[in-house]
User: Fold this.
Amino acid sequence: MSQISEIKENLTVTNIGRGMIRREDPRLLTGQGKFIDDLPFSDFYEAAILRSPHAHARVVSIDTERALKLSGVIAIYTAADLEPIMKDLPPKVSHPKLNYQIRLPMVKEYANYVGEPIAVVVAENRYIAEDALDLIEIEYETLPAVASTHAALRKGGPKVHIGSESNVAVHIIQKAGDPEAALKTAPHVIRETFKITRGGGHSIEGRGVAARFDPITQQLTVWDNTQAPHYVRQMLATIYGMTEDEIRLIAPQDIGGGFGPKAQFYGEEVVIPWIVMQMKHPVKWVEDRWENFISATMERSQTHRVEVGFDEDGHLLVLKDVFEHDQGAYCVGLQVPTITMSTLPGPYVIPNIHSELISCYTNIVPTSSLRGAGRPQAVTVMERMMDRIAEHLGMEPAEIRRRNLIQPDQFPYAVGLLFRDGSPLTYDSGNYPALLEGAVDRIDIVKFRRDQAEARSQGRFLGLGLSMYVEGTGIGPYEGARVRLTNSGKILVTLAASPQGQGYETVYAQVAADAIGVDIDLVEVRHGDTSSIPYGQGTFASRVTATAGPAVWEASELLKSDLLAVAASLLKCDVSSLALSGNSVFIESEPERRVLLYDIALVSNVGRHGMSVPRDLPIAIERTAYFKPVQAVYSSGISAVIVEVDPETGKIEILKSLLGHDCGNVLNPMIVEGQILGGHAHGIGNAIYEEARYSEDGQPQAVSYLDYALPTAIEVPTPELFHVFSPSPLNPLGVKGAGEGGTIPVPGAVANAVEDALRPFGSRICELPLTPERVLRAIYDHD
Amino acid sequence: MKSAPFKYYVPSEIDEALELLYQLGDEAKILAGGQSLVPMLNYRLLSPANLLDINRVSELKRYSLTDEGLKIGAGVRQREIELSPEIELAFPVLHQALTNVAHVQIRNRGTICGSLAHADSAAELPSVMVALGAQMVIRSGVGDRAVKAEEFFKFHLTSDLEPAEILTEVHVPKLPAKTVGAFEEVTRRKGDFALVGAALLGQWDANGQIQNCRIVCSGVAPVPLRLRFAEDIVNGTDLSDQVLVNVQQSVMDSLDPTEDIHTSSHYRKIVTGVVVRRGLSRLVDQRGAANGSR
Assistant:
């Protein structure tokens, strides 16, 4: 693959770039995966959690007497029993202007959403624990609830938090150029309001925490299927007043999907290990599906009021977007809405931008990152407007995009806004015209328009939608990797980040094997245990390839220089005469003069007890590297969708789905393809099916898959994929993130396609997901 | 999502089951395929004190297709009926409806009688059984009785069954010659309960007119809804395009469907008209075949 040659001159790359089958697959496909609920916690008690049935209520009294009498119940804890840990769980991303509301691990007085934890029952097993939940008597004083940003902003309406002045969490404006002046002078200005709903993460495995405390070593071991083991360890250390070394946090070898909700920090993660230390007995809590529906963070509605100004030729002059974001009951982090703010301009040259966020508290489970993380909403808004401009000017949607794209020679391209990592939004590399033309050629738009016209004459409604995006990935602050020569002569790579299906055990073996030059079968990758590498951040924001990847690369290069130095000493030759291949180092001109990695380990790691070694001989062959990106690296892509809409039922059939994707150099094309396919399924769900509906009093309406329309393999077409390769100049592998690109453009493309199909009816598609009901309303209910 | 505690009974004879049920009364629920009951137990929407598992009662596991029609016992899985070529030939509309019931994995466990006793009006089987004029055979410790499908469904998730009774069998009478049928539905996802569904049956007479038409809808009312007014419009006609347009309009004008989380009453009103019209046009498609075959 040609793109690989740019990684490093003079390097023989044999593994990077190969579509290697994942090492994880055999155990997963044969049911041998080890998920948190599979671990042999035979002596553990099990916990169940009583959750608020009200969206907003004051807890007047809690009576646990009857529940405690139930045979098999060990203990019940409420906030009153957990005073030492009733401390604030701060947001991951904050802002100086945030109207901050304290989030506690459990309800102390006010329950602010349905699902908020109020009491924990510990019992011999989960059945008994749940029986006991039914016996806890709680008196509530119910309070008026706020269940939408619209309700939150209503003058004189109820407040989400008793005693707060306003339901606005934060109001931020970012500007580039002079948008006010540009709106006044632009030859054409069009406006629209869009409402976009994202859904939940719906990982097959819910959240889970188990812990054991060893009174002899004073070590607290926590098993937590988190996306961010070191982050959770630090939060626990801070809240418990312990050092990070007193807590060993293990993310199990296999985690059944993350998608963002498992990168957040929850009250349950604080409470369960603490209870373990109080009881001096191990306990586990594994979230069930119902709990996942009501208490795992999700993304939800944004309402955008957008204006764009452009000239006669369709050149964008100004973009102004003011949007409401549903933050939920607490601010778990501002990453999602701030990402929305900076994702809007996408791949287009827009000289004047006004991006304004009004984030609101509501009495609903908090929102946080979920695959796409604020981008699908932004991209839908921008791409819907690109289609509207095309319609306004009577132009092909592809042509309007063509005229506005940032060109390959314009990188690095400064948009004029800030990204969520705090750095200027500056795109590092890309080739947006190649993505657009790649899609246009594969779709054959001229032929499609003929087919569309013919179909319309027969009463059938076909539509084409395009949608492009730029996605900031690979954010800081850093990620680490430790590479070690084991005493048996193998290479062990230890990552701080833990995977949830991304194939780290395969990909980072590929990277290390190529950096060192050893046989990949000698390389093993481990992850997710804070005791084996001191610092790390975690798997989120499509960041690990572009942070842990370079860290593995750098640590491996350092390790290789150590291996060569030991060999030079043993072979009494110069390092420059040596080569490394397979399982040995040898003199290139005399390959029979070699030392095995095993021999190196014997000399430098095992050593001879009490004996001196030469001064220049590297010992303890182990290297750790932390890679610190200077800024985000920007992936990009395009989705093209052809749909047929049944105008009598509002049902949408996807006839073709095409995705073009650019994440720079590709380490393992098979894994990247898998990521894109999975992301695409989430995108189809967002576009047509998934909606976490709440009643006006904040009651969740969809708490099972009967009512929450998660798409299945039947609903999700297999997309055609193509790749463009624009390596990042900002890291040594030239890589960018690939975990979310399949999701981000799809809702916008589907919405554009449906409106295109229904153009004869003058339908306006302004709200997602496109349920049959909404489609039918778009046909019937307009001027 | 763990069930509340219950006592579990596994009778192997029908009389034993009836005796147990007579003793336990409304404190018991019957477990057949468990495809609706078990999730309801796990969500603690139901917490019966006793669970009576009839899966070991061999007498209930039989079905038969004779000159009188089809008899399906309470233990017969949906998939068994779906996969029988003889039943598909004799009752194509039942086969079509079954292929729309949930997913294969669920049909492998779910029973025909279980779905009927559960009485979800958005399910496929209740409306198709009303259209087919099926009889429900109900047994209890005190006596047996038979109830027409049309009278069996009382309200959403409520049937005519008394606490001590078991729906042991459903009888589907043999269809008259030249019967044609169709099952149409609109769902959000494949396998979902119907937003709107319709089972249709009728016979083409020698003059090319449809007779004895039955139109029964799923998902629009608390029970399977037989649209007699629509049947009156179409009976004795040739189902011309104009008749189809009229019946679609009439259905739209007349219905006041239920509203739920899945869709509005208004949507169901419009789309029921569409589904009925499309179902009728499939009867039109079968006119030639029906006349040619006899």
Summary: The mean pLDDT of chain B is 95. Chain B has three domains: 7-53, 59-173, 179-292. Residues 29 and 70 of chain B are 26 Å apart (CA to CA). The first strand of chain B starts at residue 7 and ends at 9.
